[in-house]
Amino acid sequence: MLKKISVSVAASLLLASPALSQEVPQVAPVYNCDFQPNCEVAPGIYGKMGSPVNSKFNLSIGGFVKLDYAYNSVNLGNNGALGALQTAGIPKSSSVAGQQDQSIFTARQSRIWFKVNGPTFLGAKTGALVEADFYGAGAPNQSANQSATMRLRLANATLDWANTQVLFGQAYDIFGPIVGSTVDFGSGAATGAPNNPRVPQIRVTQKVDLGGGTALKLVAGVQNPVQDSNAQSGTGTDSWGSMVNMAGQAMVVSNALGVSPGYYGLPMNSLTAGVFGLYGNQDVAGAPNRVDSWGYGFYTFVPVLKSKDGKNRAMTASFEGQAYMAANLSSPGGVAATAKDVLVNKSPAKGYGLFGQVIFYPTQDLGITAGYGKRNAYNYASYAGINNFEKSFSQVFANVAYDLNAAVRVAAEYQNLNSQYGNNSVGTSDSGHANVGRLALYYFF
User: What is the DSSP letter of 336?
Assistant: First the structure.
């Protein structure tokens, strides 16, 4: 009996041995792109990493580690690594800070995001995105690198039908679609690209097919009013009762010129041209009427050299630009000296902005970007009695970035920053100038 059992066990092991000897199947790596050649060399931020982890729904995790080194020819303070996002402008050349230089590291621009693909709803795909960086204000010394605090950047959910999208949560401002493709943290926000305020909102995007590869994209939404001085500082009694802003876009999108790289070389965009606008108002203490907040502008994206297959970046080039006119928008993004003008003269500060950039990829892995941006007060005379108001803030920039592999990108940038100030009370003016050199290392994950 025992002998029969032993023979049976031995036979079973012999039959199983081919299966036991087989190698475990290898899983192909999931890269951050979907094209060849050099598929693995294409760092991405949202959407290209499709490896779900355990969650109620499919959940992707990603982001990047970023180390910045910046040399500033003037002292921009503890947040000097922010570059052109300095809301107070460049220190005057006659000031102590204007006669000092600065050498600084930071890793606070690193980010982490979570993206969810959820169940359908009435035929719509649903999803959500949450993103954070480390420029929060919760630490006792929020400007110190060693006290970095997580900060909410984006938190929004979407319902996507074939031609309609509903988005709610915190997302980029609807006003001013352009995002400067700069290595510095500012993305041109302070110099003519005021898209960077990320505000709570609800928006609807509708695509209307016009035929022949051309469509009309309409965006309408309501969003939090970033121009409220109380909302900006959290204190004060000079303004209250802001009405939510109504904002929108109307863009014509066409594939007539193919596609070419956009921001950071990540998206491939088609020919786009159209208008955008915003309206809101608020009460201001001492003002006889409510103060209006408004803006309107024009935006375009042009594929100058199109991708040969719609995905490869080699020998592609694009131009992107916008111009706007606005009143009582947030000072770092929209117009100059907003708070001073509203609180002293009880009227909205008016200004205009210009921004343009050219992106060129001679190879799949090498990207070169150059651009110019400026915001300018509209009527200097309206600032009578306001000392040291900012007439204008501008930048010229150029950068080069190279993707070493799927994860690592190296980049270098030069910026020339200029602030012009006015002092109407004594009829004098001054200016601030800065030259910035920047090196950055990215690890996308």
Answer: T
Q: Look up residue 71 and give its two tokens.
A: 């040399």
Contact status, residue 274 vs residue 250, Cβ threshold 8 Å: yes
Beta bridge partners of 106: 68
H-helix or E-strand containing 101? none
Longest dimension (CA), the chain: 114
Q: Helix (H) and strand (E) counts for the chain? A: 3, 18
Q: Determine phi and psi for 15, rounding to 5 degrees.
A: -65, -30
The per-residue pLDDT for 39 is 54
Tell me the torsion sign for CA atoms 228, 230, 231, 233.
positive
3-state secondary structure of 286: coil
pLDDT per residue as tens digits for the range 344-402: 566 777 889 999 999 999 999 999 999 999 988 887 777 766 777 788 899 999 999 99
CA dihedral 265, 269, 273, 279 (to 10 degrees): -70
Which residues lie below 8 Å from residue 226, measured CB to CB, with a gap of 6+? 173, 197, 199, 232, 329, 330, 333
Where do the domains of the chain lie, and which CATH numbers do they carry? 32-444 (2.40.160.10)
- Which three-class secondary structure state does DSSP give residue 233? helix
Residue of 229, 153, 162 whose CA lies nearest to 196: 153
Residue 437: C-alpha distances to residues 2, 71, 358 (Å): 82, 5, 19
206 CB contacts (<8 Å, ≥6 apart)? 163, 164, 217, 218, 219
Distance between CA atoms of residues 334 and 276, nearest Å? 14
Length of the chain as a residue count: 445
Q: Rounded to two decimals, what is the model's pTM?
A: 0.84
Q: What is the pLDDT of residues 122-162, one digit of tens each?
A: 999 999 999 999 887 654 445 567 778 888 999 999 999 99
Within the chain, which residues score under 50 in pLDDT?
A: 1-29, 31-32, 34-37, 47, 49, 139-141, 228-237, 240, 331, 333-341, 343, 426-427
Integer Cα distance of 223 and 195 in angstroms? 13
Q: What span, in angstroms and rounded, lies between the C-alpha atoms of 336 and 350? A: 8
Map residue 183 onto helix, strand or coil: coil
* pLDDT on residue 16: 41
Sign, Cα dihedral of 313, 299, 332, 423: positive
Distance CA 216, CA 128 (A): 25
Residue listed under structure tokens 């959940």: 59
Angstrom distance (rounded) from CA 431 to CA 74? 13
